[in-house]
């Protein structure tokens, strides 16, 4: 099964309603889809998380090195590409692009063999995964607390048992918003908060203490990812679990996160941290260190399917009669490309089914690759 071609599809869609997290406004969504085609004409698809226009040239350079190689040699290809650019790409764009390549190779293998990826990775431990709703961003309107409460109530009505609120807009605003959302949804639904590393450790600790009585499920990215001392200070000072890792890469980067005990919940992005091959290794490391693994997921149906395939094979840690189960992050914000590229994941209230078709288990609408093409 030799590789015939590698393509990078850069997709772009304008949003009807701009939204912001703590560090930037969005008025459009970009996606980078990787397509690897074998000499038999079978295509596997992957996705790259990160700036699409910057990552696309790296995917194409990788592609020049892959044409003619055995597509089933995923481990060898990963190690070769990583080692070739190790001096310049231990983190960031080079690993993000490699992630999309790796996912596409897994999808190609599954389609060629007629099996879902989770069977190729050892067989499913679970066929359904609990999901939490990510939304509750800042909008261009003045009634901030009111619309957050309304949006949170809609997720509860849909059956989600956990939702995540974006914070990092300033101490006073964040406390008001957090208390408002908790009052709206009550105590029976888990509430997590995500600052997208907008705080330093002093501000993060102050905010965390101010909402500590609200039973926060986790406090995500309280400080910048490179501030390991800040993570340690926040984790030592606050009673709620601390989460992070969407801006970390490969088993080598996560090794230090685990050794230093910086987080209670680790959140690699499958489309950024190294793909399925590498994220399985990271998940195994997390289990060895007793750290919960809940991947970051903020892309199209390809990213969601990749996360679900991996979550299907992760054992409960530690095993028990009522173990903690890993969760899928389900982005609920506007994303025209995601909504058109694949069918939605099968969700029954707060639970999502793991796709069982070959490869990622999803079908790609190729017309969307042309319709939203940005270059």
Characterise the protein shown here:
- Strands 4, 6, 7, 8, 9, 10, 11, 12, 13 and 14 form a 10-stranded mixed beta sheet that branches. A 4-stranded antiparallel beta sheet has the order 3-2-1-5.
- The radius of gyration is 20 Å and the shape is globular.
- The two termini are 29 Å apart.
- It is α/β, with parallel strands linked by helices and 375 residues long.
- Helix content is 40%, strand content 21%.
- The protein has helices spanning 52-66, 74-84, 93-113, 117-120, 144-158, 171-185, 201-210, 228-237, 250-259, 275-289, 301-313, 336-341, 366-371; strands at residues 3-21, 24-38, 43-48, 128-134, 138-139, 162-166, 190-194, 216-220, 242-244, 265-266, 292-293, 328-331, 347-348, 351-353.
- The mean pLDDT is 97.
Features of the shown structure:
375 residues, alpha/beta, 10-stranded mixed β-sheet, 4-stranded antiparallel β-sheet, 40% helix, globular
Gist of the model:
The chain is α/β, with parallel strands linked by helices and 375 residues long. It has 13 helices and 14 strands.
| Average pLDDT, all residues | 97
Structural class: alpha/beta
The 3D shape can be described as globular
Sheet with the most strands, sense and barrel status: 10 strands, mixed
- DSSP summary: helix tally: 13
Computed CA radius of gyration, to the nearest angstrom? 20 Å
- Number of β-strand runs: 14
Uncertain runs are none
SSE string, helix = H, strand = E?
EEEHHHHEEHEHEHEHEHEHEHEHEEH
